[in-house]
Design a protein that fits this description.
Elements: E1 15-19, E2 26-27, E3 30-31, H1 35-49, E4 54-58, H2 77-85, E5 89-91, H3 98-105, E6 111-114, H4 129-136, E7 141-144, E8 166-168, H5 170-184, E9 190-194, H6 203-210, E10 215-218, H7 222-229, H8 244-254, E11 258-259, E12 263-267, E13 276-280, E14 290-294, H9 296-307, E15 311-315, H10 328-342, E16 346-349, H11 352-361, E17 369-370, H12 374-381, H13 387-390
Parallel strand pairs: 1-4, 1-7, 4-6, 5-6, 7-8, 9-10, 9-15, 10-11, 15-16, 16-17
Antiparallel strand pairs: 2-3, 12-13, 12-14
């Protein structure tokens, strides 16, 4: 990575403004998953060792749509972070302005302050110049460690970098290095696995990856649109009618690189208690039934492809994995990636539902890298430049 990182900077005596990704799930005031908070610890701890005047953290949480909403307050995160850091973390109920500056100045040397949700300001998502300048007044240097928001040109990710020296945190650096290397210098054979509901969300990624991978395995609801392009009967299965022609063109372009499921687990209703059966896709899905997972024959084929892989990137579940009866395909693929890692392959999970599936399967420690950003990782795999990264200082 040719951007400056926290290892290249002297933080002594500085107010350090860090954009973190604390967009974590809450149950009332309780943080139910602290993965993203833990992911920010290496950067925060490294900076604290550099004797800064203060560390000020900012993040968004949910979608409050530019208005103050207690439901989306970051206040419950302060005690969780304090426990993880083993030191006090102050919270201030605003993001910019005199109250924030006063709270910062009241900190002891090396103190930590968490600001209120950046999206309580409508200007945040518009990359508003005035808000960006107000954020920049809080710090002497800006550190971006929020990869999950790096594909957004917001005030707290891009705008503030126009007014302060802007450098990458360890998490952002790690994400870029893994994902960039996967695209530019993968060890072959390079296999990508794409799932999820929609082809339209991933057309750019598919087109980009087809030029780079040895095999591209397709699962999840998006496979149905490819099946439709092949002329198969799909019953009540989810199909994107607008994307059928695109799917047909991708099939023609891909040669034998694109590997589709050959069998599927179907249900007679969208319910975990639905009647289930496994059918060959080419024989058609009965009326009133729908595809909810990939079948054992498909898993065997995916397993054969992954057995020799040296680099694997996975984004998107293979079925409706939230329902245990339709989760087998997704968890089986998770196990295949863990096995591939054990054999020396580099395995990368591209955030989102795939990351959740790996966590749920208890295999996260057996994967080379699990991305913290679904949308950002997809845009990187598509070969796009991320605004939050472009805004940082070059080495």
């Amino acid at each position: 990575m040719n951007k400056m990182s926290v290892r290249d900077y002297d933080f002594s005596g500085k107010h350090v403004l860090i954009r973190v990704d604390f967009n974590v799930p809450l149950d009332g005031d309780r943080v139910t998953d602290d993965t993203r908070i833990r992911a920010a610890l290496p950067t925060i701890e490294h900076i604290l060792k550099g004797a800064p005047r203060s560390v000020i953290l900012m993040s968004h949480l949910g979608r409050p749509k530019g208005e103050r909403n207690p439901k989306f307050s970051l206040s419950p995160i302060a005690p969780v972070l304090a426990a993880l850091l083993g030191r006090d973390v102050e919270f201030v109920g605003d993001t910019v302005g005199d109250e924030v500056l006063a709270a910062r100045d009241a900190l002891p040397t090396g103190g930590v302050l968490l600001l209120e949700n950046t999206r309580f300001y409508a200007g945040e998502t518009k990359n508003d110049v005035e808000l960006s300048q107000s954020l920049a007044q809080i710090g002497d240097v800006f550190v971006n460690d929020a990869f999950g928001s790096a594909h957004r040109a917001h005030s707290s990710t891009v705008g503030v970098a126009d007014h302060l020296p802007a450098i990458a945190g360890f998490l952002l650096e790690k994400e870029i290095n893994y994902l960039a290397n996967a695209i530019k210098q993968p060890e072959q054979p390079f296999v990508a696995i794409l799932g999820g509901a929609k082809v339209s969300d991933k057309i750019g990624v598919i087109e980009s990856l087809l030029d780079k991978v040895d095999k591209l395995l397709i699962g999840g609801g998006m496979a149905n649109t490819f099946f439709k392009a092949q002329g198969y009967e799909l019953g009540n299965s989810l199909v994107e009618a607008d994307a059928v022609e695109t799917a047909r063109a991708l099939l023609e372009k891909s040669g034998d690189k694109l590997v589709l499921p050959t069998d599927a687990v179907i249900g007679d209703k969208f319910d975990n208690g639905a009647e289930r059966r496994t059918v060959k896709v080419s024989e058609g899905i009965p009326e009133g039934w729908a595809i909810y997972d990939i079948g054992v024959e498909t898993l065997a084929e995916f397993g054969r492809v992954l057995d020799s892989a040296r680099t694997v990137v996975w984004n998107g579940p293979m079925g409706v994995f939230e329902m245990s009866n339709f989760a087998k395909g997704t968890f089986a693929v998770a196990q295949m990636l863990a096995d591939a890692t054990e054999k020396g392959a580099v395995t990368i999970i591209g955030g989102g539902d795939s990351a959740a599936a790996i966590e749920e399967s208890g295999l996260s420690d057996k994967i080379t890298h699990i991305s913290t950003g679904g949308g950002a990782s997809l845009e990187m795999l598509e070969g796009k430049e991320l605004p939050g990264l472009v805004a940082l200082k070059d080495k």
